[in-house]
Specification:
- The structure holds two protein chains of two kinds.
- By secondary structure, chain A is α/β, with parallel strands linked by helices.
- Chain A has a single domain, classed as Transcription Regulator spoIIAA (2-Layer Sandwich), CATH 3.30.750.
- Helix content of chain A is 39%, strand content 31%.
- Chain A contains four helices and six strands.
- In chain A, strands 1, 2, 3, 4, 5 and 6 form a six-stranded mixed sheet that branches.
- In chain A, strand 2 (11-20), helix 1 and strand 3 form a beta-alpha-beta unit.
- Chain B has one domain (3-133): Histidine kinase-like ATPase, C-terminal domain (Heat Shock Protein 90).
- In chain B, 29% of the residues lie in helices and 24% in strands.
- Chain B has helices spanning 16-25, 34-56, 108-115; strands spanning 3-10, 64-71, 75-81, 118-121, 127-133.
- In chain B, strand 4 (118-121) and strand 5 form a beta hairpin.
- In chain B, helix 1 packs antiparallel against helix 2 and helix 2 packs antiparallel against helix 3 (108-115).
- Classes of the chains: A alpha/beta, B alpha+beta.
- Chain A binds chain B through residues 1, 19, 21-23, 51-56, 58-60, 62-63, 66, 83, 86-87, 90-93, 95-96, and chain B through 13-17, 35, 38-39, 42-43, 46-47, 50, 54, 95-96, 101-108, 110-111, 114-115.
Amino acid sequence: MAFQVSKSGDVTVIDVKGQLIVGNRQELKQKVLDELEKGERMFVVNFSETGYIDSSGLGVLVSLSKKIREKDGELRLASLNEDLRTLFELTKLDTLFTIADSREEALEGL
Amino acid sequence: MDQELILELPNDIRSIEHAVEYVTRHCSSCSEYARRLNLNFRVGLTEALSNAMLYGNNSDPEKSVRVEVTITNDEVSVRVTDQGVGFDPELVPDPTLPDNISKSGGRGIFLMKALMDEVEFNERGNSVTLVLRFEGEATA
């Protein structure tokens, strides 16, 4: 599992490769907070290569979204497969996030 | 033929992903039900293990978590037991209520109940049994 950070213009894109779960959620959190500290404000977390997310992974996304909004930034999620969408719908977190079908769609307008 | 597995895991959240994959790999009778295995089972078991390690055992590295798995042609059943004092699962608030939705925690037991067919805690609250049945339309 790994989190790959890249830039697309002013947007920081984090690709989640593998799972986003209790064992690695702090790694994602720290990577995003480091970028936020450097002055980055627009973020896309891309899940095109993600197997599953647990409640800790969902929790870290909620927490990061709040911290980014506090700095007048925005966090968007991209490329959730059917299973991952089910998790967001069950927990009603689909109402809390902007979720795009693809990385490209998420980048539009940011 | 029924298959049984017993694992004694160190109280280390980094061991969870490997343990979930190990148990899932042994579930050959459920391979037809790939979606239920990939999502429901993996996430349900991950939640049970992280609850046991973080809250049940209070992240104490000296403690361990016992995992007992029974796989039949009809279902997979997993009992996860920690060495903590237990808790009352009824006291956990609904994370989908408007006041709770933007909280970062509190979704573990909700997801377990939503994704598994049965979730039963023992009276003390330090052991949970999860059951996933293989029924309905196969997805493999």
